[in-house]
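## retry 2 of 3
previous attempt timed out at serialization; input unchanged, resubmitting
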Amino acid sequence: MTAGRLDLSLDVSAVPARPGGAGYYTMALADGLAGRDDVGLTLLTRRGDESRWRATAGGAALRGVVPASRPGRLVYEQVRLGSVLRSVGVDVHHGPHYTMPARSPVPCAVTIHDCTFFDHPEWHLRSKATFFRRAIRRAARHAAVVICVSAVTEDRLRAVCDVRAPVVVAPHGVDHERFTPREPAEGADRAVLGALGVPNDRPLVAYVGTLEPRKGLVPLIGAFDQVARAHPDAVLVLGGQTGWGMAETEGALAAARHPERILRTGYLPDEAVPALLRQAAVVAYPALEEGFGLPALEALACGAPLVTTEGTAMAEMAGEAALLVPPGDVGALATAIDTALQQGRATPRRSLGLAVAGERTWEASVALHLRAYAVARAASQ
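## retry succeeded, writing output
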């Protein structure tokens, strides 16, 4: 511990080699904290994963102590992590993925991304839902501070748990160097997308994210079927890696009336995500429930017309910059996609979306996290 600064440990061991939204959050947070003079950051990584984090957050100290397997990581956190924190000598420990050590010598901050383990356990493996419900309940009662990524998430947390910990809402930011309406060079986007088989001369209805039940892909496929005849050149692009529970989605794809106009890219390379968002005629992110929905914010930052779901964190973030539809409503989703395709990109919503995204920075998010860490540290004094 050093006077005048915060010595912080951040558990990054849950971030996979191909990260999704929560993984990118952890990476952006690590990068932002590592560059600060008032923070002494120690990253707790999986064994053998240190080089990746050295490139991501070069100013941080690294401790490659966590087992690689998910069961091993979870057991290690509960049984061994407390002694590691004691030896590192930090002021606060941050578990950015719902969990905290069973016994910690320092106050803990815990990030809650969403409450779908309570609201929709069917969207998760049964064992995973059971474990994380228990972890979230424990964090809500015993963490020194809970960090929620949106007000919607905080509201749901208070509805499903006995929340005794202080709560700080810290929305995600967006990387404005990467997600911008401007191509890095003329023709760069089309070259990147062409290598993935994405056509460059047709209107693209784009989805970006993991392919899993809660993302609303079944309604999206049905909605595309409804608009396909009116827009015979349009192509639905599903950009993202396959998650679990794909049976219903695969069934919808098999039953689609225009399967030749639905393209699955698989996991998108980093440079392909903003390229697809910039070139899309409309980005559809119709998630049934989401803690934040980072791809929706990234779409706005790229100047893309956005269709997403009302009553969700995405609606909280986007407001009038997006066309909002009820979750799971195929007809309303089809109407919104049709409207966006007809209107094109030159609408007042585009300027509003760029303004909304401009206010969401990782620097602002890091500042809110520092506020949360101060609350946690004060709890031990």
